[in-house]
Design brief:
about 375 residues, alpha/beta, Rossmann fold, 2 domains, seven-stranded parallel β-sheet, five-stranded parallel β-sheet, about 15% strand, globular
Amino acid sequence: MKTLQIGMEWFPDRPGGLDRYYYDCCQYLPQADIEVTGLLAGSDQVFQESNGQVKAFASSKDSLPKRWLKMRTAFGQNMTDNQYDLVVSHFALYTFPILDQLRHLPLVTHFHGPWALESEVEKPKPMAIWLKKQIEKAVYRRSSQFIVLSQTFRDILHREYQVPLNKIHIIPGGVDIDRFNINLSSIEARTQLNWHPDKPIIFCIRRLAKRMGLENLITAMAQVRDRYPDILLYIAGKGALADTLQTQINELELTDHVKLLGYVPDEQLPLCYRAANFSVVPTVALEGFGLIVVESLAAGTPVLGTPIGGIPEILKPFSQDLVFEGYQPNQIAEGIIEALGGDRVLPSSEECLAYIRANYNWNAIAQKIKLVYQKASIVKKT
């Protein structure tokens, strides 16, 4: 099966859940006999880095009208030069301008989240939010099948965009287990990172944005610090809230306990997970899957998460103790204190890894995606 996959940006250039998923699709779908050609926004290096598999149709810094025009040109050229069985959308914004060029080809959408609703949480601009939702609806009306990462996103896609349930398929994200299951002890990982060898360490990686719940986590750490004076929390990521979070850390007198690491290179993430006693995902809204949850477990590190979106769908079948009672600061603090004190039983590294191997192996997930692609192709032909 030959597919043309429309992405947002190239993962090594722009870290993020959608881009990571798209990148992994390019790696693993060919192993399921799905040929992948990709188009996304980025630099000329994308073509070389992907061994000719993916092209950047425009720079992500171009104006939106220019990106749309260049997308139409690149898509039209690909349609002239190739015969595809399927077009696959990972980002509605770049699929929208080529809807009239699809002709007879079926379109499958990987729904990575409600773009308009996420914008409403972060930057409430009513007109922009309305326009984003119209773009999404136009793409979803043309799509014949949908893949979502969780039941939570299935429900949102059905409720907010009126997509029939029989067109929506829940297939969780996967993780490159070999990349995260590094052959290092926690102490060895800490040594390489220059982290403290003895103190309890919590790791959190998030975009520094409102819906990620980092303000609540930092507030919770004031309570945790009172019980465990040597506790350390390392927060990796960049975003608009960096200065606000640092001010909060200073005001709560947590500078010796909470550190903003900024951007952490992708190759260092397995070390960060392995070095921590456990990781935390404090999301307060619209968490469709939580790739960092399975990454942490693949590194053999337990993860505590809020009961939001797809997080409990991953964690509860494994261990109820890994899910906080809620996302408020006192609930997060209570859960962390219980974990540090042994009142919450954290699974072993071996148990974490076994759970991921059984449920989030990319090779098995690629086969499930293939079945949806085949269904879309068959339905369109009939």
